[in-house]
């Protein structure tokens, strides 16, 4: 169980560190003010909690009602993780800071931006569902799945908060802009490798 948890958190971390809508929104708000960045993170994590809850409940229903559909989602999930990895390898993150646009958004606006950006992105549910269906056995109790989901939520809060706090420092922001593409490539390699192992296993 511990090994599975480490892998689940590792896959989620690689996905978090790869450029996507959430990261771009956090980047934009944090570079206006740390307070706006934290409000955005709060909204994103609330939306993520909804996706995790939906994934845990959905998997429980699928396992009980249709093992064939569960296996179909399992292989489709591996394909989706591979797609995310390839996108990280071939894409350009393009996150840059413009000092001329440093005007802080209101707390409520930043919160809503984060909430709806994550909540209205069906790929988040697909990703969580993919990871759970690949790395947790069908007979895993729903309570254990819920604990894994809680661990994902806590990880998201910690990682995004640390990222935002570091991004508020000009020295880190400059280095991040310089190395963001190699970081994205590294995350892509990890995700592609895990997708291949999932199918092979």
Summarize the structure.
This protein is mainly α and 201 residues long. It has eight helices and no strands.
Terminal residue distance:
17 Å
Structural class by SSE content = mainly alpha
Counting DSSP H or I runs of 4 or more residues, the number of helices is 8
Global mean pLDDT: 81
Structure description:
By secondary structure, the protein is mainly α. The chain has one domain (about 1-200). It has helices spanning about 1-15, 20-30, 35-65, 65-90, 105-120, 120-135, 140-165, 170-200. Helix 2 (about 20-30) runs antiparallel to helix 5 (about 105-120). The longest helix has about 30 residues, at about 35-65. It is globular and about 50 Å long. The two termini are about 15 Å apart. The mean pLDDT is about 80.
List the helices and strands and how they pair.
Blueprint: H1 2-17, H2 21-30, H3 34-65, H4 67-90, H5 107-119, H6 122-135, H7 142-167, H8 170-200
Helix pairs in contact: 1-6, 1-7, 1-8, 2-3, 2-5, 2-7, 3-5, 3-6, 3-7, 4-6, 4-8
Feature tags:
201 residues, 8 helices, 0% strand, mainly alpha
């Amino acid at each position: 169980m511990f090994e599975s948890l480490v892998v689940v958190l590792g896959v989620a971390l690689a996905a978090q560190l790869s450029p996507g809508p959430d990261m771009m929104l956090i980047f934009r708000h944090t570079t206006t003010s740390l307070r706006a960045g934290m409000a955005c993170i709060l909204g994103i994590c609330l939306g993520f909690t909804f996706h995790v809850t939906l994934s845990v409940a959905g998997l429980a229903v699928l396992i009980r009602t249709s093992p064939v559909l569960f296996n179909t989602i399992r292989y489709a999930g591996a394909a989706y993780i591979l797609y995310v990895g390839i996108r990280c390898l071939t894409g350009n993150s393009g996150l840059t800071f413009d000092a001329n646009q440093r005007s802080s958004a209101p707390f409520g606006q930043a919160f809503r931006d984060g909430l709806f950006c994550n909540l209205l992105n069906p790929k988040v549910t697909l990703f969580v569902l993919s990871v759970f269906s690949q790395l947790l056995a069908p007979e895993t109790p729903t309570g254990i799945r819920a604990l894994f989901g809680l661990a994902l939520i806590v990880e998201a809060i910690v990682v995004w908060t640390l990222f935002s706090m570091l991004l508020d420092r000009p020295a880190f922001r400059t280095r991040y802009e310089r190395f963001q593409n190699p970081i994205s490539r590294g995350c892509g390699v990890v995700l592609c490798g895990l997708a291949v192992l999932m199918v092979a296993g």
